[in-house]
Amino acid sequence: MSTVSTRAPAPDRPSPPEPPAPRRRRREQQWPAYVFLTPWMLGAAVLTLVPMAVSLYLSFTDYNLFDPPHWVGLRNYTEMLTEDPRFWRSVGTTLLYVVIAVPLKLGLALGAAMLLRNLGRGRAFYRSAFYAPSLLGASMSIALVWRALFNDGGTVSEVLGSIGINTGSWVGDPDLAVYVVVLLTVWQFGAPMVIFLAGLQQISPELYEAAALDGAGRWRQFVSVTVPMLSPVVFFNLVLEMIQSFQVFTPAFAVSGGEGGPADSTMFYTLYLYERGFTASHMGYAAAMAWLLLIAIGVITLILFRTSRSWVFYADEEGR
Known about the structure:
The chain is mostly helical. It has one domain: MetI-like (MetI-like fold, Orthogonal Bundle). The chain is built from 13 helices and two strands. A hairpin with a 7-residue loop joins strand 1 and strand 2 (70-71). The protein is globular. The protein starts with 21 loop residues before the first helix and ends in a 13-residue tail after the last helix.
């Protein structure tokens, strides 16, 4: 005879709550980051993106800071490229400055970094002393002192004259004035020097020991070990210095007295942009110059990145 179970059925257990969707969970994890980023995003929008959009619009207008902008289309660009000889002189002066100043500055910075790497006592002092001009050199006061040093009767002309080299005033000589700005820039080699020094300290001493065992001298070690291992740092400094050099303004303004003289020999691109925008009140023309400079820097930077594949070596690239 079969027995019938009188036990009551077990109550249904509540199912565990489903985990939140991955997208929702990511949003919950990311909102604190957006809160902290909000001031930066507002600053970027208000202080960078909006002014850039306004300047782009003004580059297609005739605007003199007092009357409402008048739309002229591409007239500012065509006038700049085909009817303005001073524009092309400013381009030539800036290119000459970049071609001379950037290699000299990077070469001096690398040489100083290599000397400091092998220096024992006093390295911190010399590193600070070499870095100080990078902090001070961008100021107008230092640029004015530099102008006085190279002016007629200044220290440089007096010292050179005492050894029979009579150059007179560098500032007043159209053939030498641009080199006053070049030397002021090269003097500020401290910032790239610190970056080079950090890169040199990351190179393994075992590489130099292996090269020495193979019979490599100092020069061969520099060419075969230091340069390839330091090439990413060289590339980084090259891009930064190139961008900064195309935008040089304060030294050119101080050395030339704000006029780009003598004979437009120190009429750098940014100085001419300032003159057209704030002296001649052709703000639309100046905005067009600014955008053309941005495009030129972007193109040159892109070329540097493209060509870097053939000469920049990364230590871990074989494992990638």
